[in-house]
Amino acid sequence: MKLLEDRIISEGRVKPGDVLKVDSFINHRMDIQLFNEMGREWKRIFDGVPINKILTIEASGIGIAAIAAQYFNASVVFAKKTRTINLDGELYVSSVESFTHQCTYSVVVSKKFIVPSDNILIIDDFLANGSAVTALMDIIGQAGASLAGVGIAIEKGYMPGGRLLRDMGIRVESLAIIDSMDPVSGNITFRRN
Ligand code: 5GP
Hints:
Number of helices: 6
Radius of gyration: 16 Å
Mean pLDDT: 96
Bound molecules: guanosine-5'-monophosphate
Number of strands: 10
Number of domains: 1
Order of helices and strands: HEEHHEHEEEEHEHEE
Oligomer: single chain
């Protein structure tokens, strides 16, 4: 999606540790007009696919998912990050290896909010190793619900997450796929289909 790629080129900053900072339009300040175009694009891509719920992960996925949900007429559930788990049987629990913070944390979703009849689109800001998406898929599986696909804003295409998921037969639709990014020059290249 050219609009997103242009913003990444003009405002994205490549940080040591293979982190792309997009604080000025996604991760801190949220550009709602851009989110709106992203939502419209996912709707175009997933047109005709039954989707009644969007599942994302706090915090950065929430804004994107909320705007996209308006196009799908879907509700949004976000997995909460937690250190302590009250295992009272009311929650679906999975774990994520954080790419940006290099630690493992739990994510939980109340059993009330995902049911077997749900057709779920997962949305997140980044795809790197695939740990966040895999945890959300695990929760969908625990609930006996169906995964309709995965919508990602920025995929780091040189990392294994995208291939891992697509090799499992999952439909992953990323709006920008980065092929390389160099922390020294700041150069970013995108995959062209
Ligand atoms: P994964 O679980 O696929 O390894 O990483 C995806 C998660 O890590 C996303 O939810 C996102 O928050 C974070 N992440 C991964 N790479 C980046 C990055 O380059 N920049 C930012 N801002 N977040 C990232």
